[in-house]
Design brief:
mainly beta; 6-stranded antiparallel barrel
Length: 323
């Protein structure tokens, strides 16, 4: 006697119901798997900002009102303030311990701050350069890179020779002049004198307005802008050459692949371009304002900051909830 399978003993109606339930379960499971895979292939991009910065990078030579301290004799230079400390005019900032040719007796000479400002003991050899043509003949990028690759110069006790600069005090209240060297390629920021631009300095964090005093090109075809920066931060005043970025901020644009654009037709038959966005997990359609059409791209006005655009619209439906 053959053993019957359990299903074979069921009433025909029950068997049909069981088969339908199995098919439904398989369909639901398959649909869920498909949806999960499809959703994993959905690509989005989020609007991070509604503006964009047009930038002109370069290097700048810092020229500030500075009082220098020179050794009157060979000897040992002993700082009496901290590097970068604000000092008052005539405040003691260093001693020089020295001897004379006539005897081994040690003498001490006190050096007072020639002006109020920031004391700088890290001397780099450029302190006495004042001629603009000499400054513009320097390789600012090389000076900057060397200053960053070398270890911090000693600001402590050290031996010095007669007539060498041992310390400087930079006036922190007077405006600073910056001789800014930059490439004029794609320059949309620095155009002419008597303009106000914005400029920022990554190393010190300063981000300020600057007044353009002069714009010129030297005999080597290098472009220079002479900028009045106004009073600057203490850390900035201790720099010789800085990395800088002149910039202007303007309304951003949105550049999309044509495949990301979803066109709807109004009741009057007008074609309206838009995109699918994801708002609280719900797919919504949002109209866009096209500024320019290219072969494979659409350039349009920027959407609000935080908008999440679905760049694979063929994988979603309007009103769909994405988890």
């Amino acid at each position: 006697m053959k053993r019957q399978l359990p299903l074979a003993s069921w009433h025909p109606v029950h068997r049909v119901v069981a088969i339908i339930m199995v098919v439904l379960l398989l369909w639901v499971a398959g649909s869920a798997i498909y949806t999960k895979i499809n959703h994993s292939l959905i690509e989005t991009v989020t609007i991070e900002s509604e503006t964009r910065d047009i930038k002109v990078p370069g290097y700048g030579y810092v020229f500030a009102e500075t009082g220098l301290i020179k050794a009157k004799n060979d000897g040992t230079f002993e700082p009496k303030a901290d590097q970068g400390e604000r000092v008052a005019k005539k405040q003691l900032i260093a001693d020089l311990i020295y001897t004379t040719d006539q005897s081994d007796k040690k003498y001490k000479k006190e050096y007072l701050a020639p002006l109020a400002g920031i004391v700088n003991y890290a001397i780099d050899g450029y302190e006495e350069i004042e001629d603009v043509s000499t400054i513009k003949g320097l390789d600012l990028k090389n000076i900057y890179e060397e200053s960053k690759s070398k270890k911090s110069k000693s600001a402590g006790k050290r031996d010095v020779t007669k007539d060498t600069v041992c310390a400087a005090v930079v006036d922190n209240l007077k405006p600073v002049t910056l001789y800014f060297s930059y490439s004029d390629k794609d320059n949309k920021v620095i155009k002419k004198a008597d303009e106000v631009i914005r400029i920022r300095f990554p190393d010190t964090g300063d981000d300020i307005q600057a007044y353009v005093l002069k714009v010129e090109k030297d005999k080597n075809d290098h472009h220079w802008a002479t900028l009045n920066l106004g009073p600057m931060s203490d850390s900035f005043l201790l720099e010789r050459v800085v990395q800088a970025e002149a910039y202007k901020r303007e309304q951003g644009i949105l550049k999309l692949d044509r495949s990301a654009v979803v066109v709807k037709t109004s009741k009057s038959g007008k074609k309206i371009p838009g995109v699918y966005t994801l708002n609280n997990s719900v797919v919504k359609w949002q109209m866009i304002q096209v500024k320019q059409e290219q072969k494979d791209k659409i350039i349009c006005e920027i959407l609000p900051k935080g908008t999440k655009i679905i760049t694979t619209p063929d994988r979603v439906r309007e009103g769909e909830i994405l988890k």
